[in-house]
Amino acid sequence: MKTSSIRLGVDIGGTFTDVVLEVDGASFSTKVLTTYIAPENAIIDGMQQVCVKADVTPADIGQIIHGTTLATNALIERRGAKTALITTEGFRDVIEMRTESRFEQYDLNLNIPEPLLPRQCRYTVPGRIDATGAELMPLTEADIAPVVEAIAEAGYDSVAIGLIHSYLNDTHEKLVRDVLVKRLPDVMISLSSEVSPQMREYERFNTVVANAYIKPLMKSYLGRLEGRLRDEGVGCNIFLMHSGGGIISLENAAEFPVRLVESGPAGGAVFAANIAARYGLDKVLSFDMGGTTAKICLIKDQTPKTSRVFEVARTYRFKKGSGMPISIPVIDMVEIGAGGGSLAHVDAMRQIRVGPESAGSEPGPACYGRGGDKPAVTDADLVLGKLDPDNFAGGSIKLETSASEAALSAVLGDVLDMDAATSAFGLAEVVDENMANAARVHAVENGEDLSEYTMIAFGGAAPLHAGRLCEKLGVERLLVPPGAGVGSAIGFLRAPFSFEANRSVYMKLSDFDADKIKALLSDLKAEATGFVRNCDAESDILSEFKVYMRYTGQGWEIPIALTEAQAMNPDAATFEARFVEDYTKLFGRAVTGMDIEITVWSVNATTPPEKVVKIAPANPIGAAPIHGSRSLFDPATANFTQASVVLREDMIEGAEVTGPAAITEDETTIIVPSSRKAIRQPDGCIDITTKKGA
């Protein structure tokens, strides 16, 4: 058997670690509880399980692609390394002052999120680079030495270096790094000019701080993982999914772990885009709900929307500006603390609140019987009949309904004078409404109407909640693909090798310099291509060019895509025409008489995308065989009702299921609400539509 035909995708989530093995087109998967102290243990356990299922050995695996939410969770939960920031004198408080804008204009008691590093962990050095990259004030080793000594005495594990305008001239940052290396050779160092060479100091400083904050954790983990895999006989290359939807090498991931912040969710978006391409869908809402978080992403024309800045851990009603900005190429999505393990409580106003705290896998929801005594979303799902206590995770975990009822009553019911079932209903409605609100806000921010979209749901918990979410959002069609419970891991195996290089160089069209632009874009192309060649030495590499433009005086820019011919033969008139075209599409009209400026230049190098085969709709053949029935809570009527239970493996092409129903499989359960009906499509997708529409 050719090892190149055997590929392993691994996604570490906050509760479960998903493992998918593909062998000559056949897929074998499993879910195992994430082991927090040593996450690599769960990967080894899952790998061994799927190898047994496929009758291969770990040594037969030809490629491993890994994504994880460990970086994201470390930032959200503030459990990174002891980190210091070295910045320019006068800019010590940039990451605390933020942009000085109020993300909620009329809240008099607004709480601004705390910076990742407190003030005592932030140090300054003299020296100054101006906005053109010229040195205004020199910086010497003697200037840096006292700061390095203070850092040595404090015992920091990692240091972020972010100096003013270093994206144009990085000599001062490199000097600070050299002095640090001489005095503290074991301390990990991150330079903002390497991590995020872009304008806007707050975003750049925050990004380099985040990179430094999680670098020791991620570097240690990736090193241990590589060692454990080698001990198991795995000799293939190991790659990491990055936040932009592509794959990078293990070495690059260890150096720039902030690019992994959305690696798991990015795999899910790639998975959903692949499904959208198969069905020819141009407007898709990707819904990924796991054990700790829920992720929502808009996919247009079978391509996930991307951005240069992503906010981690929005704290205020999903409002833009209330999170921690990370300035890296990323698939644009909204992420909230709403997963199967998200915990509920009653606030001071006697309202049920869910998340962002999660029970994770240790101890897990109360029903796991591992010591948890607070109600989680999974506990509510169990009490409401969405889950079978004897067949959760393929029967590997037996759920205790009585423990869920006790936790719901103790934390919610006794406080609000409700029984366990009503408490579960309240918890489920709150978490579903939280996710629906997040989707609405994300759509409004992007000027989209969700009623025109098809939802694609995946992740262990998403199929349990997606039907209700569609009812709340007015979405008429829902697709749950095969392997939905491990969708992100499958997405890793569909992703291309890619890397996006970008740089801030300010230029007005009235000062257009074609030679400078061609040289800049050529350098960025070489940089991005070099990263991809580290992963794939043979495949063709495509280059995608993008510039970020705005009218002079505006506060933000829009991305403008260029063909390679336009990028390598730059012309001011072409750049202006492309900007006016896209600006008019977004805002309805162009602005005459104003100069246009470019702030950021970007080149994404990528291997060609995987080819997909279009799916022809299945012809209905009648009802799928009923395996049984169970009591299921119907939120539309606020009562329990008898629902059909159907085994997904028993549904052949064209088989139909009418709600209320539960379609079960080892890794998840699809709840079909009473307002919907489902049909199995030729590729195994469960296609759920409204009864009226059907």
From TrEMBL:
Signal peptide stretch: none
Record-linked Pfam families: Hydant_A_C (PF19278), Hydant_A_N (PF05378), Hydantoinase_A (PF01968)
GO biological process: glutathione metabolic process
Protein name (Swiss-Prot/TrEMBL): N-methylhydantoinase A
Domain Hydantoinase A/oxoprolinase: 204-497
GO molecular function: 5-oxoprolinase (ATP-hydrolyzing) activity
GO cellular component: cytosol
Residue ranges occupied by any Acetophenone carboxylase-like C-terminal domain in the UniProt entry: 515-677
Domain of life of the source: Bacteria
Domain Hydantoinase/oxoprolinase N-terminal: 7-181
